[in-house]
Amino acid sequence: MASSSSSDWEFDVFLSFRGTDTRNTFTGHLNTALKSKGIRTFIDDKELRRGEDISSTLFTTIEKSRCSTVVLSECYATSKWCLEELVKMLECKTTIKQRVVPIFYHVDPSDVRGQGGSFGQALDAHKKNLKIEEKQLQRWSAALTEVGNLSGWDLGNKSEAQLILDIVADISKYLNCASSNNAQNLVGVDSCIKESESVLCFESTDVRMIGICGMSGIGKTALARSIYERFSDKFEGCCFLTNVGNVEREGTDYWKKDLLSSVLKDNDIDVTITSIKTRLGSKKVLIVVDNVSHQLTMKTLIGKHDWFGPQSRIIITTRNKRFLSGMDAMYEVQKLQDDKVVELFNHCAFRKDHPAESFERFSLRFIAYAQGLPLALEVLGSSLYKKDQDYWKSKLDELEKTLDKEIQGVLQKSFDELNDNEKDIFLDIACFFKCSNKDHIMKILESCNLFPGSGIENLIDRFLITFSCEKLEMHDLLQKMGWKIVTQTSKEPGKRGRLWMQDHICHVLEKNTGTKEVKGIFLNLFGLKEIHFTTEAFARMNRLRLLKVYESNLSDDSDSESTSRKRKCKMRFSDDFEFHSDELRYLYWHEYPLQTLPSHFKPKNLVCLCMPYSQITELWKGSQVCENLKFLDLSNSKFLMETPDFSRITNLEALVLDGCTNLCHLHSSLGRLRKLAFLSVSNCIKLRDFPAIYELVSVQTLDLSGCSNLQKFPDISQHMPCLSKLYLDGTAITEIPASIAYASELVLLDLTNCKELKFLPSSIAKLTLLRILTLSGCSKLGKFQQNSGNLDRLVELKADGSTIRQPPSSRAVLRNHKASA
To answer: Which one of the listed residues 52, 74, 84, 85 is annotated catalytic?
Structure first.
């Protein structure tokens, strides 16, 4: 939620009075009483009155106040300053519906409206001043008449103390009502307040500390302010500490004193813990501490529950969820939903509920750009107010290239609070790895010594990234913020740490301007006709750790063959091309056009090597020391005939060779990869033999589907405790070895269209965790072995297109199966 105006009220009450009459008496006491209820008052400093000319700043202050209270004392009209204030307040009453509350302090209302008594005498005195024009006198007289006719407060026979209590109660009621009526200007605030009430638990007598959290610009402060204004009259003392993020600069004692003086209305404050507990321990208080950015603030400023009286509520707003671990409850502010997004943008851009028809198309683009972030909707909408279509279009073009400066400033506060390690992780994700698998990213970043285990969790806690469906996500505007931070490091792209914009990368490669500062390059070739890769261009980029070359006009890369055929960019290489970087951790090159990796390439630090649809015939000569390599993907490399020697790639976790249609030989060392968890060689139609499985003790998924010439599945020589999915569909195997029993954790076995398969071994009965067994199209497969009926976990058996007419003999244990025999 957020205000639909670019600026909120700065004050609740503007106090107008004659200082010599009431500053240290009635008006001073009224000001104290209002503040004790959390009402923001403006009372001018007498030191500011250096002359009798009212300042434009004071006029602006009146305009930014919700209501004005005029203390009409005997000498009020003697001040030209007071009379000018009165004229301005009554003008705001007409133009912006500001409430004006007159207080007739020891004066008769009839003297005010008729300019009798001291008011008449004051105006007569002004007439004698030759510097005052007649028009000005007439304005003052009209203002006195108008305010004298307003319903107000008269001291009468009341005590001043009682009158002040009545006035404060009346103003509190008005402000709460105004806040409620103004909810339409705080789009989405009503629903948020209702949700937050459940965690505030006003009916509970306990002291409760509540955290409000969310990303920068999401509306945390707006919600906290709305709660404060709506419920402050229920408390004996209130305080709203704005933006305490500067606690390190100003010190916690400064903020403690501010808090205590606001709640207790006493500037002579001892800020020791004992004093705080003594002064606040019996009071029911509402305290909001806004924008906490340091853990120290939590410990020293708001302390513990026993600092405050029963039914007190302490509200903390922060961009860091981790700070709220000790809170009684937490409320996370979410981005605005569709209807509220449209409502807020229209309020800001058009000052009405719907856009002009001619602007509707542009409005939708701005709304999509903001992605539900109130800050962006407010800033952009307000900047477009009363602008023509040409300006709107120009602004959209500008936003495609850069982030609005005001939005950047707010969002970057979260980034600036990170340590150097976390900044590197954030920028890598923003520039290269948004929407990528978390585990995959962590392994790459870990190899770069960036400690992603704690770093990524801290970024999530700070709402800079999110984790959903195994992927790391990021708000588009946060990503744009990251891009801008990188581009601001240098005007020369070759001196920046990360390159992802096509024109910048082409400039670096063509002009050979790369430097050791470049740590990552992600080049999308889409739209390029030709590009030349030279050894010289990479020569000085000797700290390059991330390199990706691909071609896609989609938001996610497409590795499909149909997309590949449409690509037009020609990649040309200098003779004896080299990367000149031993620091590479991640190398992804779609359609790599060379037959092998560069001869001097040293993959000792490489963690991920992905070259789908490549022209590679041989990855490298002999064996390479690749102790850090965990992912190897050569899928659809149709010229690859044999795999490399894996004997020195001991930490490999995933191997993908799908669609390598000329692959004939898998190196025998493959069977010794103890850490391999995923192995897929599907549709390798020339593969006839699979190496002996010696030590694949970590394999979870083994996919040999579509290997139509594979006639034998190897014996399993020892227990395979992790294998849960085995795909042999479409192979030419004639039997399943009895050693399949070693795969005791197998959950899925797919033998679809194994047309040469004649029988299943009796040992299959030992696969007690098997849930899905697919035998469809196994036309030569006979009945189950008589003693193969202990598959008590089986829930799905498919055997259509086979000769099987009944499931295993022990039908009772298959009561949950869905057979399609």
So the answer is: 85
- Express each pLDDT in 234-253 by its tens digit: 888 888 887 676 555 556 66
Name which of 749, 677, 743, 751 is nearest 716 in CA terms.
Answer: 743
Q: State which amino acid sits at residue 816.
A: N
Residue 624 burial by Cβ neighbours in a 10 Å radius (0-12, 13-18, 19+): buried
Question: How high does pLDDT run on average in the chain?
Answer: 87
Q: How many CB atoms lie within 10 A of CB 566?
A: 10
The token pair that represents 741 in the structure block: 């029993």
Which among 666, 766, 772 is positioned nearest to 719, based on CA atoms? 766
Residue 82: per-residue pLDDT: 93
**How many structural domains are present in the chain?**
4
Residue 496 belongs to some domain of the structure: no
Q: pLDDT band at 785, cuts 50/70/90?
A: low
Asked whether residue 325 is domain-assigned, the answer is: yes
Which is nearest to 765 in space by CA: 789, 797, 737? 789
In a domain, 376, yes or no: yes
Q: Average of pLDDT values for 396-407?
A: 92
Q: Is 523 helix (H, G, I), strand (E, B) or coil?
A: strand
Q: What is the pLDDT of residue 564?
A: 47
Is pLDDT of 557 > 80? no
Whether residue 342 is found in the same domain as residue 305: no
Given this model, what pLDDT does residue 70 score? 96
| Cα 255 from Cα 243, distance rounded (Å) | 10
527, part of any domain: no
Mean pLDDT of 321-331: 91
User: What CATH number is associated with residue 50?
Assistant: 3.40.50.10140
Structure tokens at 712: 């034998």
> In the structure encoding, which two tokens stand for residue 505, read together?
């990368």
Q: What per-residue string of b and e applies to 332-342 under the rule 16 or more CB within 10 Å gives b?
A: ebebbeeebbb
What is the rounded CA–CA span in Å between residue 447 and residue 451?
9
Q: Do residue 328 and residue 342 come from a single domain?
A: no
Whether residues 396 and 413 fall in one domain: no
Phi then psi dihedrals of residue 131, to 5 deg: -80, -15
Q: How many residues does the chain have?
A: 821
Whole-number percent of the chain with pLDDT over 70: 88
On whether the CB atoms of residues 144 and 119 are closer than 8 A, the answer is yes
In the numeric block, the tokens 């992912």 are attached to: 631
Query: How far does Cα 133 stand from its chain's mean position?
Result: 59
Is 85 designated active site? yes
Residue 476: partners with Cβ closer than 8 Å, 6 or more residues away: 369, 371
Q: Which of 38, 129, 123, 130 is nearest to 83 (CA)?
A: 123
User: Residue 393 sits in which domain range?
Assistant: 338-401
Out of 244-248, 263-267, 811-815, the most confident range is: 263-267
Residues 420 and 369 in one domain: no
Report how far apart, in Å, the C-alpha atoms of 558 and of each of 565, 591, 631, 670 are.
Answer: 12, 12, 19, 28
Look at residues 354, 374, 401 and tell me which one is the last residue of a structural domain. Answer: 401
Could you tell me the CATH number of the domain that includes residue 467? Answer: 1.10.10.10
How many helices and strands in the chain, by DSSP H and E? 26, 31
Nearest to 532 by CA among 555, 507, 556: 507
Sheet holding 329-332, edge to edge: 237-241, 285-292, 313-318, 208-213, 329-332
